[in-house]
């Protein structure tokens, strides 16, 4: 059983309450980021007390991990939906180009997700899930965007290239890199993907 579910698992009403609290905290994170995140701030955002949050979650780290997971899943779903619009007619590069606006949309919580990667590097003992689980969540959808006729190895290599490049570009945006240089890097990724697909 996952952390945070133990106290409400026996009650549909309790689980609904837990989900509502988590959604409120997730929205606060998307808007304000990780700086100064605490159980008390989360409680204010959810319109409750920190004691209520401790009833439904196993502490601030558990709450933070679940909120970040929710933001990441939302971002993946939205970006893959955008990419799917190109599935029948577009190249791999066109599908990646279609998901880029979703990844950089402030409403996607991108700043929080890039900040969480920083936490994984700063304190891996507490936050390694932000790095490892992010990769586990992102890779399968990216693999699905690759041409099905490619070998599994080739699809994996290209999906990992896409993920690493997108992560780097998104991180550069968060730390204040010149937007034009970020867009130039993304354009270079698209050209690399076009060459890769042309080599089929």
Automatic annotation (TrEMBL):
Keywords: DNA-binding. Gene3D superfamilies: Tetracycline Repressor, domain 2 (1.10.357.10). Residues 38-57 bind DNA. Residues 15-75 form the HTH tetR-type domain. This is TetR/AcrR family transcriptional regulator. It comes from Dactylosporangium cerinum. The lineage of its organism: Bacteria, Bacillati, Actinomycetota, Actinomycetes, Micromonosporales.
């Amino acid at each position: 059983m996952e952390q945070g579910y133990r106290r409400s698992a026996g009650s549909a009403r309790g689980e609904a309450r837990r989900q509502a609290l988590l959604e409120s905290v997730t929205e606060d994170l998307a808007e304000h980021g990780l700086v100064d995140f605490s159980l008390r701030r989360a409680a204010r955002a959810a319109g409750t007390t920190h004691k209520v949050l401790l009833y439904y979650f196993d502490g601030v780290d558990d709450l933070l991990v679940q909120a970040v997971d929710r933001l990441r899943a939302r971002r993946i779903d939205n970006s893959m939906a955008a990419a799917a619009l190109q599935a029948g007619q577009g190249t791999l590069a066109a599908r990646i180009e279609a998901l880029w606006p979703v990844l950089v949309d402030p409403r996607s919580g991108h700043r929080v997700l890039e900040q969480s990667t920083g936490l994984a590097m700063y304190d891996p003992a507490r936050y390694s899930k932000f790095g490892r689980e992010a990769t586990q969540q992102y890779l399968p959808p990216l693999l699905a965007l690759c041409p099905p006729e490619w070998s599994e190895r080739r699809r994996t290599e290209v999906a990992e290239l896409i993920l690493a490049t997108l992560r780097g570009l998104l991180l550069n945006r968060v730390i204040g890199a010149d937007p034009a240089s970020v867009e130039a890097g993304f354009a270079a990724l698209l050209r690399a993907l076009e060459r890769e697909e042309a080599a089929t």
